[in-house]
Every structure is written in structure tokens, then in C-alpha cells.
Amino acid sequence: MARIDYSDPATASERTRELLGKNRSANIFRMMAHSPSYLEQYCRLGGAIRNKGELDPVIRELAITRTGILCEAPYEVAAHKRIGGYVGVSDAQNDALENWQAATCFDETQRAALAFTDEIVKLHRPTDATFKAIAAKLTPGALVELQLSVGFYIMTSKFLETFAIDMQPVTDVV
Question: Which end of the chain has fewer CB atoms surrounding its CB within 10 Å, N or C?
Fold first, then answer.
């Protein structure tokens, strides 16, 4: 059960109701709507991460889902496993993300991205060796996008867990 009540869309501004509608009134957005200006900017950056970059969407979704796993945010994991499936993440890859190091379903670039993700979340920054490994595989732009994706979804995962956002059927919100 959420720690505070969700915002009431009936009392929200037209712009906030529009954003909630675009996001299927998912609980995370209903909670975030307590701060309409932050909700709007959150949606802008989230949209850029998911739709405007050069980073391969499979790598992006693997990294986002792994971030949710490491941050112990089941809402995030469920949503991004589904989104990952839309962009080409295989069921085997989604299933292997808990213990990706032992899995054989990831290519070299995906493994480097997952190591980078693990170190950002666990160590707060990647080691030089891990950074060099992923930097050798991605353009500078894609590398920046990968790091910002992980950082954004650390924040998102922590938001979900701080407010104890209630799970919804993933098919209702993604």
C-alpha cells in the first residue's frame, strides 16, 4: 500500500491529466502528479531516454531492467521486462538477468553494458576496466545515454520504493 495517497486526477490541471492519460494513469505517475512540474520534466527525460537516443534499445532495456533488479524495485522490473520484449529482448535474456554473468544468451556488448550497469548501481561508478570495455563497444553518445538511462532508473526505482507504489497488472500500464 502506498505510503501517501495518490493524486486525484479530477483535481489536476489539464496538462497533468494529459500526461496521466498518455501514461495510462499508472500509479507511479499518479504519485508523481503531486508535483506537476516535476512530473512533466520526468516524462520529458524518460521519453528522450526511451525514444530519442542512438543507444540500442535492447541494451537500454537490459540495463534498465538490471537496474530495477539491483535496486529491488519489482514494479520497475516487471514494466521493463515487458518493454524489453517489445524492442527485442528475448524471454531467455529477461529470465537470465538475475544472474546474467552465468548466462550464455548475451553478446559481448550486452555483457559489457550489464557489467557497467552493475558497477554504477553497486559501486556508484564503474571501474576503469569496465568503463574501457563498454567504451570500446559504444559511441560516446550511446555511452552517455547508457549511463543516463541507468541513473534515471536508479532514481525511478528509489521513487517507487520510497513511496511503496502499488503494483498494477503490467498489461494495464505498459
Answer: N
Closest-CA residue to 90 (of 74, 73, 113, 107): 107
Which residues in the chain belong to E strands, given as ranges? none
Q: How far is CA 57 from CA 80, 114, 164, in A?
A: 11, 14, 28
Query: Could you tell me the three cell numbers for 73?
Result: 524495485
User: What's at 29, amino acid-wise?
Assistant: F
Q: How far is CA 95 from the centre of its chain?
A: 17
Task: For 84-98, write each residue's pLDDT tens digit.
Answer: 999 999 999 999 999
The structure's pTM equals: 0.94
Cell of 142: 550511446
Separation CA 120–CA 122 (nearest Å): 6
